[in-house]
Fold:
Amino acid sequence: MTFRRTLAAAALAALVATSSAHAQAQPPIKVGLMLPYTGTFAALGDMIEKGFRLYVEEQGGKLAGREIQYFKVDDESDPAKATDNVNKLIKRDNVDVLVGTVHSGVALAMAKVAKETGTPLIVPNAGADAITGPGCAKNIFRSSFSNWQPGYSTGVVAAQKGYKRAMTITWNYAAGNETVKGFTEAFEKGGGKVIKDLTLPFPNVEFQALLTEIAAQKPDVVFAFFAGGGAVKFVKDYDAAGLKKTIPLVGSGFLTDGTLEAQGASAQGLITTLHYGDEINTPRNTAFRNKFAVTYKVNPDVYAMQGYDAAQMLAAGLNAVKGDVKQKDAMLAAMRKATIDSPRGKFTLSPQHNPTQDFYIREVKGNYNVVTGVAVKALADPGRGCRM
Ligand code: BEZ
Structure:
């Protein structure tokens, strides 16, 4: 009897030792970061990576008990190189999960490859409507927004302010055109009229001729979509042309997010809408902002927050399968159902995997986008054309 018990105990001990050795031997989860590290969106890519890593570090450097190994590609915000770049991560590095990117055109190419190969993809910025529209897929998620959303919410606010004649100005690519479309839809529904759309090629920043045209047309309001280095230059040029004093400028919040130190006085008082603001006064946001500032010696912005939430979405999936990425269907199902406790406020995903979220009204005061109200509560992208 005693001998049998000893044998059983020894067998159990051996089993425990084997399974813990097995747990230790689990290789890291390979995360492929495809982001812009050069060019007009370089700062945005850097902030997304910082936010993603911060969440992982808060979990002890592991998600669902597994180490995270990063593989990085600089996509240069160049759609022509996107397919080759994403294939480097999938075929050369054999990543388990893709995270990227900022530029809508690059993200569209990335999403096509992700869909064809079934590689899980979390988009931490690019708003291309098609990604959660006609190009939607079971394995593609967004922690950010669709281009339609901030355009639409800014259109609501501009109409509420009583502006009647608007002009729009943006880069001629998916993000610019789709944001303007969202703005126009809400602005015209609210009684306004967009009298002219102005565009220039991405990432061109020679705004002078277009500013001259705005001055000649004298609309009640100008709506702009620019981001990163382009947004810095546009806001300064708009002011230098004397337009800030005469024609109100509004925009989706990318116009003034992560850019305020460089824009200085030219940005003061600008009104934008976005799914984030510097001063959302909740314990969750305060904790995020403090931790980010202490870790990186810089304040977070919307891009950092989206990167942080991309990691939270991945964690929700991995936790459900105890880190076993091979159980892909169960992992994706958990991501789809997750409620993300974001610094922006809790959000869930639409059936097409885009955040349903509040859009805030923000006003630039000093170096902050101060939240002054909510433009639209729980705004869901219509997900037009998605069949999953
Ligand atoms: C985009 O290309 O989707 C994008 C880039 C920067 C800020 C927001 C959207």
The chain has twelve helices and 14 strands.
